[in-house]
Fold:
Amino acid sequence: MSKNPFPLDKQGLLEAYRTMRTIREFEERLHNEFAKGDIPGFVHLYAGEEASGTGIMMHLNDRDRIASTHRGHGHCIAKGVDVKGMMGEIYGKAMGSCRGKGGSMHIADLSKGMMGANGILGAGAPLACGAALAAKFRGDGGVGISFVGDGASNQGMFLESLNLAAVWNLPAIFVVENNGYAESTSRDYAVAVDSYVDRAAGFGLPGVTVDGTDFFAVYEAAGEIIKRAREGGGPALLECKMIRFFGHFEGDQQTYRGKGEVEHIRAQRDCIKLFSDKVVEAGVIKRPELEAIDKEVLKLIDEAVATAKAAPMPAPAELLTDVYVAY
Amino acid sequence: MSKNPFPLDKQGLLEAYRTMRTIREFEERLHNEFAKGDIPGFVHLYAGEEASGTGIMMHLNDRDRIASTHRGHGHCIAKGVDVKGMMGEIYGKAMGSCRGKGGSMHIADLSKGMMGANGILGAGAPLACGAALAAKFRGDGGVGISFVGDGASNQGMFLESLNLAAVWNLPAIFVVENNGYAESTSRDYAVAVDSYVDRAAGFGLPGVTVDGTDFFAVYEAAGEIIKRAREGGGPALLECKMIRFFGHFEGDQQTYRGKGEVEHIRAQRDCIKLFSDKVVEAGVIKRPELEAIDKEVLKLIDEAVATAKAAPMPAPAELLTDVYVAY
Amino acid sequence: MARKISMRQAINEALDQEMTRDPTVIVMGEDIVGGMGGEGEKDAWGGALGVTKGLYAKHGDRLMDTPLSESAYIGAAVGAAACGMRPVAELMFIDFMGVCFDEIFNQAAKFRYMFGGKAQTPVVIRTMVGGGFRAAAQHSQMLTPLFTHIPGLKVVCPSNAYDAKGLLIQSIRDNDPVIFCEHKNLYGIESDVPQESYAIPFGEANVVREGKHVTIVTYGMMVHRAMDAAAQLAKDKVECEVIDLRTLSPIDWDTVLDSVENTGRLVCVDEAHPRCSIASDVSAKVSQEAFKSLKSAIQMVTAPHTPVPFSSALEDIYLPSAEKIAAAARKTMAN
Amino acid sequence: MARKISMRQAINEALDQEMTRDPTVIVMGEDIVGGMGGEGEKDAWGGALGVTKGLYAKHGDRLMDTPLSESAYIGAAVGAAACGMRPVAELMFIDFMGVCFDEIFNQAAKFRYMFGGKAQTPVVIRTMVGGGFRAAAQHSQMLTPLFTHIPGLKVVCPSNAYDAKGLLIQSIRDNDPVIFCEHKNLYGIESDVPQESYAIPFGEANVVREGKHVTIVTYGMMVHRAMDAAAQLAKDKVECEVIDLRTLSPIDWDTVLDSVENTGRLVCVDEAHPRCSIASDVSAKVSQEAFKSLKSAIQMVTAPHTPVPFSSALEDIYLPSAEKIAAAARKTMAN
Ligand SMILES: Cc1ncc(C[n+]2csc(CCOP(=O)(O)OP(=O)(O)O)c2C)c(N)n1
Ligand SMILES: Cc1ncc(C[n+]2csc(CCOP(=O)(O)OP(=O)(O)O)c2C)c(N)n1
Ligand SMILES: [Mg+2]
Ligand SMILES: [Mg+2]
Structure:
């Protein structure tokens, strides 16, 4: 067995791989199920971006909180939300994470520190500041992490939050998942600065840019930032440059993309392939070990879909619960 | 007569002086009238900050538009809004600029390119983008200028506008009038970056900081920025560091200010004194010429107050005009 | 020449015709062109649901994609309107109003009054409303009452392609800010629409079915549910008069009151939540102005006082149904 | 021990007592301490109108001044609430809701429902409402109907010091988000307030005057105008029952309906604009539920459908007056 050159031990690497595979399988399956017409509503897939959420979440525990985006499945899985509950939720079933009331864009599990996917772009940034504030008051060393896309990085709520986090010296981290597009609009058109490090600097925040398809780059940069925040060193911004395998939402024809763009990124920039090749080439993990995980993951997702499909819808009475009904 | 070392000819210098004096006299008078209890509502005075609005507005004509703040009297006067109409408005009279419906925080005169003082901080920045957009479509070389304070520079609407102006390459200019306070809160507490040049850079905008008590510094920096914008060179940010003579609003006891702070700035950093001394010392203008203007200004303000006080209130029927009354 | 076209096409045509007629009309929003800055097709999207598709080819840079900054670009539209343009800004979903409401209700809505009549702000905000799309709590709201409450705003919500075209043209020509609400579930619905340009005046409700027993007042997608209910009731010889308000502010009280004076019975149907809703607004007005004509208590059929649930099983019972409307009408007949 | 204190002091005391009782209560807003980062006095302001003055000395860093970024800090309060704190965030004027509404209506209000009951968001948003201060169109609005329309929010608007204290304590203890509306013209008004802590339950209206001829339903500053009107009418032997709703959501329908069943006559008074207002909401409900009890048409007295004008001459006639309320009550008697 060769020496492990990675910042994680073998178990950690396998865990990371399992998380990324689970996300990928979850999303690929949703893509297919959606195409069949079985899945209602808007579905935004995280496939291709797994290294970002996973590399960050590997540093977190349940008392750390994250506020996610409309593209939230990957964040949920990496943060430990139950995959069957998630699938059930996406199918609108009573056994779903939110008892069928939330759907894909609103999966949450506060007990796991997952404050919710969010249909409103940028809205998670203030929420993460709040989580960080709560951690600060409790003195429990927790952090609050907000995810936004390149598009949402132009939202006032996000921008204000950078300043607020700095003013209050919060253990808050702002992750910009820059996949180059906001729906059909290129980042180059809509974000009027080349580097997110500069945008962060405009609010007195340290910023770091990493290749978000490189799990290890994300893992290490996030580790440092999170450690500093836990120790009272204040907020930071982390940009992960990454790629989106599928369209903005399911149904998107993606004609705004360059010719061959998707094929290229699938072949050359698949973060899971890159990760696997690295750990196998380094001799730390054997391909069959990964394949064993693939099988387990496949089984998990098969079961999740089967369970979700078979599960009952919420009872009509559910319409009027979980809210003060004044009328 | 010695050579004029200034970027304005004598007539221009006298005009600048007249504008600044008019603002100062207007504001000092309001301060006194407010103390007597004659003036209703919230009144925010621009005294001490005259060099900023004046130095910028000297470059503008009526087809250039500005969007102002809650502290808008100075901007109005410098942009050419009728002083008597303004005074009438502040007294709530029918002859006021807005027929008594707006008040101090909402004085506007679209025909002069003055899009309104604004009670909502940061709201003017998008409006100025709109003015710039209209100028761009018309191709008339006009610019849109937004004023914000240091406090309002943390508002999402303002921050979003920086990015939008850059993306659309608008002839838009963002003036941050940094007087060190937002109400009672110090800029050092609330703005998490030392330099506004850095904040601008976070949105791909060039930024310039000037001493806002130095009329000439403002005038020259603004001139360059405005020229570039007119020629299609895009937006920019201009920070004017300045001082506020009075409290945040009339009635403010200002106990949050350091001991002797107000006395010091009045003695040492009065932009009008600084201007007068410079032009007199250079031998371009004689003190009595300035004093003659002082007298004329005093008379104008006297008349404005007398007219405003004597003028009739709006007729009751005015309540229901200038809006679609659907009920 | 009238043809059957969808509400989506009708809206597209209205924009096209007004942009052709008036060079001050500009259109902006997120991905309303689509593909900006990228290497693929321009006009790839034409809006999230394809409503503006094709306009870029004809009108070029007068359609402007925006960064994801609703306050900034909607405020810019408001500012440009105050400076002589007639911008049509798209707020993709009305649910996003919370990030840009100030520019709408404190700026656009108030300029004319606040500035003593010396400004006008002819801006149109096109926005998608309503449920039934399984789009969950933050992409399915109606929210028309929030805008209707605000003086200075006009609020429009067409139920069909013909009205959509004529009302949008009127909205663009109107000198006040208009919130133009497009129900996402009606985009595909076709009706006869003339090719020529035409404007439908604000404040004129449409009596879409005449009847002498019960008046049903509603707007948007609920017009179709009300018509279904009326068809059901007709089988039992209960004749409903169905009124499509078309514009919520201004609102056509005369047509509503005239009808209730005839029928003596009223059902107010609203896809919005019940409290401070269009339904309660209409109910209040009628009970006050037509008090003596009322033969029985007014009934309201609205969404419940809950967020919009995701699950189809719940959303289907969340939305007012033809059955519920019919039951309410029957109730007015029973008393 | 009851003393006469002002509504301002009562609110300050409620915050003080709850902060003392529960360490998870934190308070944030612009200048709620005042003087941060400067060289002068800390706690220089204690809020724009001095409501939180003195709390910093007792509770220190649990009062947090904020940058001028309402979305960020109100959203942070919402997020902290979802993570176990009980934040009280001040939105200086309700007129500023347009820059932070999303965090209130799409986030705080919806979490519990949208997450299937697995979250709670005990956040209080204290905010100044109402006119009469010559503060013009952007600092004088009522806007209570906008929040009342939204499911998941609770909306409170006290009319006096006693209620303010008890309702604010209840707001802080409540597990749902609460919009706590403080009328700026009532801060100075004194009433008997016990020193001890007490909570007033939501959804319990207060019959502030009993009477058998006409019911007047209102809230906030209008309670005082309604009482003045009732006093005028009493001289003519018209006995008004005046109901102070205290909380608009939830709302105490029982007390309102009981009263109208007795009197048969109703005047709804609202400082808000008329369309989709609290007044129309109450009017609708009563006309539906107490149809047979009504002896005459319900009357509404509201602000007009216009922005709030600045000039005192106009603002005085903009606001519902005791005279207008009395006239409306007389009208219900005439029919
Ligand atoms: C406030 C708001 N504005 C607009 C939208 C519509 N919308 C949903 S996703 C999206 C693009 C997001 O782009 P980005 O932030 O880069 O995230 P990505 O989809 O690339 O992960 C837009 C415009 C929204 N949901 N919320
Ligand atoms: C959106 C919004 N938030 C808060 C306020 C209340 N407010 C009015 S002036 C002010 C301070 C402004 O500070 P700054 O921007 O520095 O301008 P200055 O008063 O110093 O000129 C605040 C907080 C407001 N009017 N609008
Ligand atoms: Mg993106
Ligand atoms: Mg300032």
Observations:
- Chain B touches chain C through 47 residues (CB under 8 Å).
- The domain at 10-309 of chain B is CATH 3.40.50.970 (Rossmann fold).
- Chain B is about 45% helix and 10% strand.
- Residues 80 and 234 of chain B are 25 Å apart (CA to CA).
